Structure formats: structure tokens, C-alpha cells
Amino acid sequence: MSHALSFDPPHYTYDDYKLWEGRWELIGGTAYAMSPAPSVQHQSVSNKIAWQLETGLEHCAECRALLPVDWRISEDTVVQPDNLVVCHPVEGAYITRAPELVFEILSKSTALKDQHTKFTIYETEGVRYYVMVNVEDRVCKVFHLRDGRYIKLADVVDETLSFDLGKCRIAFNFGLIWPR
After folding, report:
1. Which domain covers residue 66, as residue numbers?
2. What whole-number distance in Å separates Cα of residue 41 and Cα of residue 74?
3. Which of 37, 46, 64, 78 could form a disulfide with 26 if both were Cys (CB 3.0 to 4.6 A apart)?
4. Span 51-80, mean pLDDT?
């Protein structure tokens, strides 16, 4: 008779997460390293998204664009969207309510998590729009939350889409985000 060793993987909480060095996400008590650092291409696209969101929201007093910030969803789930728009007051070191708009820039190391795990989290938590940016294929999949489920609005390459954020609208030109 063999005696297989069994162990339960550790279940981390926000108190553990706060002490970690480097960039991490915590999903359902499981730690996900956000390394290596994003590629130059990834950062370039993220900067262009951030600039366009910032510019598009300059006349909206209610909403603001953020770069990766901790979104503490529960005691054992903390994520860091690449680019996001919040339309509620933010106090402290992290957000606790769903953003209106989230962009995730896919990479080989994060694509499965972004396309499945985070997709489900964002849908469940009520993120109004979720945009998955595929830099290699130069296409964005845009999802809109309707009746608690994501419906794909479009596969966008260089079109301009209008996002209704409730308190504000923003016209976003996807043609401006790609590296030259």
C-alpha cells in the first residue's frame, strides 16, 4: 500500500498579499506572480490607452482613468487591471468597487488568466465594459455587460467605439493604440 503525500496549497489573504514584494495578483486565495515585467510593446500600448482615456475624460468630473491599481474584491481576491476607468470616489491605497471599463493587454504569460479567470471575475463583479487587447494580432475583443452577462460587442482593429460609462461617454479610437 502506497502512502501518497497530499497537501493543500496555501490559501492566501489580503493580509499576506500586502507583505509581498514585486507585482502579484491574488485570486481565490491563490497567488499569481505578475512577472516578468511587461514588455516594451505592452507598456507602449498601455501608455497609449492611458493617454486616450485621460484625454477623453478630461471634461468628466465623475470618472477617471487609472493605471494598474489594486482592486480588492474580497479578502482573498485582489487583481490589477492594466488600464481602468472608475466613476466613483476612490480613497485609500486600493479600489473596492468595480470599474466601469477595464483593458487587459494579453501576453503569453497572462492570456489564459485574462481570457477566462478575470473575464469571469469582471463579469460577476459588474464591470460594464471589458476590453482584451491582443497586441500580436492587433485586435481588441470588446465585451459589454448586459443582464449580468458579457456580450461581445465587436472585434476592433482601428475603429472608434463609444463607451457609455453612465455618468460620462468616451469615444475611443483603437487605431491610436498600436505600436508603429
Report:
1. 38-176
2. 32
3. 78
4. 96
